[in-house]
Write a structure and sequence with these properties.
8 helices; Rossmann fold; seven-stranded parallel β-sheet
Length: 260
Amino acid sequence: MELNSSVAAVVTGGASGLGEATVRALAAKGVKVAIFDMNEQKGEAVAKDVGGVFCKCNVTSEEDVDAAFAKARAAHGQERILVNCAGTGNAIKTASRDKQTGEIKHFPLDAFNMIIQINLVGTFRCIAKSAAGMLTLDPLPDGDRGAIVNTASVAAEDGQIGQAAYSASKGGVVGMTLPIARDLSNDGIRVNTILPGIFNTPLLAAAPEAVKAALGAQVPHPKRLGNPEEYAQLALTMITNGYFNGEDVRLDGAIRMAPR
């Protein structure tokens, strides 16, 4: 798929981090970009910066997602590109004993479900609705009607202590990539997923520099945190390379996460 001003894109979680880098990379190619995010102030600022449109959206809400797609398509037309970056995480042990009091606790199911709803169900909701819209488009000369890029995590394969919910949600994104790519293959819509390692995103913004340096030192090569622009570069490759389909690709400097 060639990236130019005739192409529209939607990026969920596009107001910051990996999503913002992807928004800016697509816009630099002339693509008309809609940002789906909960952060209205940051989302509007990024949209103004790149000449895009901001759509306030909670991906766990059917109503929000429908309204966001309607607003994006009214502004730019039917999107050919969807990049799913909206997501969050928590760190809670499945069951644990308080060292001081001896009290035994377990992972609250509502907290587990919240992560699944945002990271997994929210991703699928946006995929299904975007793909349905892409089906209305004529194929491009290369046969593509659209391209979808999802964001999982290396935690899908080597989750750490406390990451049961997060790893389950991201493992689900990995697991559904190939069947969705197969579902949509006859209609020329490609689907791929990136599994980022430790990236320098707003999730780490409050961490001391010494902590960031220690995390970066765990990476075999290069010994640093990933840059959001490197994620965006791979996302654009997945979009523009017509033979890239049904793949789950780690982007992690060869790190394999330790238990903690």
